[in-house]
Design brief:
Blueprint lengths: L1 H36 L7 H6 L27 E5 L2 E4 L2 E4 L3 E2 L2 E6 L3 E5 L4 E5 L14
Antiparallel strand pairs: 1-2, 2-3, 4-5, 5-6, 6-7
């Protein structure tokens, strides 16, 4: 019977001790809520109206300095085709060689094809009167 009373007494003490910690925790939360409940003072409406816009607004009209200046593409002049070599702008090239941003991808009897990531150009041999030159051999 004494052991039963001791166990009961210890249980009551444990519950009481737990109640004290719960009571303390409730007090801490009450303090937090009371701080939140206080009326907060913000910025006056007049001050808000005086603040400059923090966001950058991009205009749809380009500035004179922003206007894209057209890049002048170099002109390529095919001067000769001999076997697997071509003469473009006074310099001889082989297939798969590069001329600035273009690569020589194909050499035919009448033309050369230059290719880059964006476009493909076909060059023909021209005379002064803009007609194609044709040389036949036996």
């Amino acid at each position: 019977m004494k052991t039963m009373i001791c166990i009961l007494f210890l249980a009551v003490l444990a519950i009481a001790k737990e109640g004290i910690s719960l009571e303390q925790e409730v007090k801490e939360y009450d303090q937090i809520f009371s701080k939140i409940a206080n009326k907060r003072v913000g910025v006056d409406v007049k001050n808000i109206n005086e603040i400059s816009n923090p966001f950058v607004v991009q205009s749809s009209e380009p500035n004179s300095s922003d206007v894209n200046i057209p890049v002048q593409e170099p002109e390529y002049s095919l001067e000769a085709i001999v076997d697997r070599k071509v003469k473009i702008n006074g310099k001889w090239y082989w297939i798969n060689e590069t001329i600035e941003s273009f690569k020589i991808t194909k050499i035919t009897q009448k033309s050369v094809i230059l290719t880059n990531e964006i476009e493909q150009k076909e060059l023909f041999i021209k005379t002064k009167d803009r007609s194609n030159i044709e040389i036949f051999s036996k």
